[in-house]
Amino acid sequence: MGIWDTLYSEIIRFFGLSGIIEIVKKGDYSSLATLGGIQKLIYPIIPLLLLLEIIRAAFYKRFKIEDYSMPFLVFVLNRFISRFISIAAVAFCIGLFERFAIFKTTFTWYWLIYGYIVWEFSHFIYHYLAHKVRILWCLHSTHHAPQHMNLFVNFAHFFLEAPYADVIRTSICILMGVNPGLLFFIMFIDGFWGSFIHLGENGLKNGRLGFLNKIILTPSHHRVHHAKNPLYMDTNFCNLLNIWDKVFKTYQDERTDIKIEYGITRQMNPHNVLDAYFGEIVCLAKDVYKAPGLKNKILYCLMPPGWSHTGAHKTAKLAREEFLTEEGEKQPLAEPPPIQQEQFS
């Protein structure tokens, strides 16, 4: 295959057009009434939204190539690596754990509700650990490195993160009895919504989506998740349903008085793809090398980012607590109710 054929093939795949092209070539439009046909129609929506986001930014003279270049280069770097590892990881977990499921479900609408709640729980677990265990943060931090939000950020991941995420999520769902076919359908919905919520200000200025902001997680919530402001760090781990964020008290709305600052707290070159990809791994390696004793070396890998063997911790949890404490101290004290005088007769 020539270079132009390869480039054409990659563009078609990126925009998710191969399924539609196949339907048009065959002339069998009846397949559009099936689940598979509907999925083929939905696949191109996110790439087309990305294109519209770029066009809109250019029209309003807000387009900057550096806002998109780093996540795009990470996407290219991952294109031929993580996809196959992730698929293999899902298949392996289904084969390994299906026999140990607590019960069996079927592909029906009522089990879809159950399955999605379980899936969201498994996603919360994976995502929470990715922020709270430093060696896993090394895999996830690439996704948080961009300093501007746009749909290309959705494609910016370290190549080992998808396999790690899918092992956690698939294992929990299969053990909880989620039907494999239903699981793949849930993954499709989750993948679409998980991409959509990365829509940046260039594509959607207000990401709250009206009344939906009170019901589900919207682009506004996910912008909060990608922020490095102390109040916003380590919040909104869920993807569509905010149930588990509210249960575990990690839910945070976007506040109009706090402008979102994207990125990670570590000093880095935001336009250097190698720094975004390997920077946290290098920092961890340095800390492990300098740490006294085997115990501290292991703890640097397992404790949250910002943990220090000296006790001078700078974790997201401490930063958030400090912010809330300072904000509480700045709030004016409520005026005490007037003291009622006793009446003497």
TrEMBL record:
It holds the Pfam family FA_hydroxylase. Residues 113-250 form the Fatty acid hydroxylase domain. Keywords: Lipid metabolism, Membrane, Oxidoreductase, Transmembrane, Transmembrane helix. It is found in: Endomembrane system. It is a multi-pass membrane protein. One of its GO terms (cellular component) is endomembrane system. InterPro entries: Fatty_acid_hydroxylase (IPR006694), Sterol_desaturase/TMEM195 (IPR051689). The chain crosses the membrane at residues 41-60, 72-97, 109-129, 172-196. PANTHER family: ALKYLGLYCEROL MONOOXYGENASE (PTHR21624:SF1), STEROL DESATURASE-RELATED PROTEIN (PTHR21624). This is Fatty acid hydroxylase. It comes from Niabella soli DSM 19437.
